[in-house]
Protein: 4-hydroxyphenylpyruvate dioxygenase
Organism: Nocardioides panacihumi
Amino acid sequence: MTVPMTLADTLTNEEKLADLDLDTLKQLVGLVEHDAATDPFPVNGWDAAVWAVGNATQTSHFFQSAFGMELVAYSGPETGNRDHVAFVLRSGGVRFVVKGGVNSSSPIARHHARHGDGIIDIALEVPDVDKCIEHARAQGATVLEEPHDISDEHGTVRIGAIAAYGETRHTLVDRSRYDGPYLPGYVARTSGFRKRDGAPKRVFQALDHIVGNVELGNMDEWVAFYNRVMGFTNMAEFIGDDIATDYSALMSKVVASGNHRVKFPLNEPAVGKRKSQIDEFLEFYEGPGAQHLALATNDILQCVDVLSAEGVEFLNTPDSYYEDPELRARIGEVRVPIEELQKRGILVDRDEDGYLLQIFTKPVGDRPTVFFEFIERHGSLGFGKGNFKALFEAIEREQERRGNF
Ligand SMILES: [Fe+2]
């Protein structure tokens, strides 16, 4: 298969270092052709998901021990950072930066006090920071950081930042002139943590999508924001008000960068008989924020087995889901026996392009807010629309247990 230049050129350095080639990435996250030359806000891909947490030291350990990620860089008082500690973790093309304030006046500590553990920055790698910031400004975005260079002995990074929903931001990073471990101010760091014998090198390879929850009535405004400010397009699976169980409901629409490298589903609560899961998020996160991160894996069975053995908890899927003849007929043949999926509670959905396997963790912090999805795509570019009802019923069972339903 020949690799089209427009896509090949967008592989980030991190992805190349992680031995990700374009065909693999295409399969993992579902890419489409796109002409970057006409894009008002060209995006290469994800740069990092940056977290503010209550204890970065321990969260860093969790992502290593439970998620199989690798510690690669660090910033903190020892490197001259008097505000917070930050640990940079990698798995394939995925980069998490986990930050914790070292005193109460740190902006990280203040973010955490209000929102709990969560995503403060969905950073994107772009080829031209100035062009993006100028376009964003002209389209009415709030510029939080003007484009500027930061340098160290590894080179120069150009960055700028714009505001997104709630207190979330998008830092835009051009690291084409930089070969350090993360950003100036960070030093390379490894960890004494050793994986268990026989553990795979990594259990997920790429970031597929990050979902944002916004208040009732604001979803279309944020869809329009990403259309206008970042030139993102509405994806085919542009789902309206059809996501409801008997009790609670939400609305969701998906915007994506030109080649679908970066995908942002946006949810808002809808009125139902009981409290929407989005309302629960907004209440406990104390405002809009990133709800879940979907990590793409080429072996979801292994991924779930490894994470479960480390104590990561997933939402349960009832046996009735797998025994439903309608579902069996709809999904047809998938690469593994349904019984293997059932054992692990993995969901499956099929559309005209192919199918996907997916599973969701329970919230990973103390508040019922941020959680993860693991997704194995086989041609499908969707988000598991056919599973929403089963998934939401599982979430509602958890909400009920927390007394928030
Ligand atoms: Fe998702």
